[in-house]
Amino acid sequence: MFKTTAPNNHTTNNHTVLLVTPHTTHYTLLLVNNNNNNNITMSKKRKTVTLDPEVKAYLDTEGRNASETVNKLVKMEMGGEAVNKELIRMRMEMEEDRYQEAAQKARGHLERYNQLNDRISEIEEEEQNHRKEAFDLLKNVPWKPDNPAIQTNADDLDMTPEELIAELEDYHAE
Question: Which of 14, 59, 91, 163 fits as disulfide partner to 159, beta carbons 3.0 to 4.6 Å?
């Protein structure tokens, strides 16, 4: 026999349903006898239920009273259609929570995507500036494939000397 002061336990017909012992994927539910002095005695039955991971995670969220949630759901199950709106409201709340989590995750992905896209733009701008500098430096050198300055800059710009000469002609023609 023990006495409990645990809040939000459901009491009906001299029985109290306690939600105790959170495990990795399940909770242990205890059905206990309750007399008028709030002295609780263990009943003969102990029930362990297995939960889907997302249900367990939902019950474990900060500010969520898992015992209250389980009690509401059991009462709804016992009450049938009369409390179906309440079940729907609880499901709506769960879906809203999932939506908010997904939206936050999506915003994070979008932010990382935009950062990567910005970095690509920076790299392309740096490459374009490097290309322009090389083209300006090569303006007054002979544009011949065997010229060491043409060969070195072609290698730096990841092109053949012939491709560099063609681009130099286009660049300086403008």
Answer: 163
